[in-house]
Amino acid sequence: MEKKWSRQVHPVPDVSGDDPVPHRAGAGPRDGRRRAGPPRAPWATLGVISAGGVVGSLARYGLAVAFPHPPGGFPWATFATNVSGCLLIGVLMVTITEARSVHPLLRPFLGVGVLGGFTTFSGYVVDAGLAAASGALGTALAYLAATVVCAVLAVYAGASATRAVIRLLRTGGSS
Q: What tens-digit pLDDT sequence spans the chain (175 residues)?
């Protein structure tokens, strides 16, 4: 028997007055029922993600323009962008989750916005496809494999190095 799934955005309102969901004045229809639709957007979070995305994307674009690659050549700029971005993601995540208390908007700004805009795994796939289409299948396959392996190792290295630095700072340099 096939199970059918349904997506319910909001529970069906209880108009008997026993609705467990409190309603703000002016938040919905006058009879107290909830309006169907998506939840309210977290505008501050979306704003910092957007601003960070602009910064990260412009940095990535600048590197791509500064270090172009020929058709069929290894896309070093995209490779370096993705690997360095992953290293910084490792550093960032350890810093903000293990080292110190930070503003709640710092993680979405730097992690999702700046580093999300900086790294480009969609560009990675496009570059690999262009290399393969130009007849450089070996380059495309090497690029595909090297990017994944190096990106994962970079996250690990960034996180491990940051933990080591934090440990040194907390112990005053004595182990």
A: 454 544 444 444 444 444 445 544 445 555 556 666 667 778 999 999 999 999 999 999 999 999 999 989 999 999 999 999 999 999 999 999 988 888 999 999 999 999 999 999 899 999 999 999 999 999 999 999 999 999 999 999 999 999 999 999 988 876 5
Rounded distance, CA 78 to CA 74, Å? 9
Spatial CA neighbour of 125 closest among 152, 106, 151, 143: 143
The pTM assigned to this predicted structure is: 0.73
CA 92 to each of CA 120, 133, 137: distance values in angstroms, whole numbers, following the listed order? 18, 37, 35
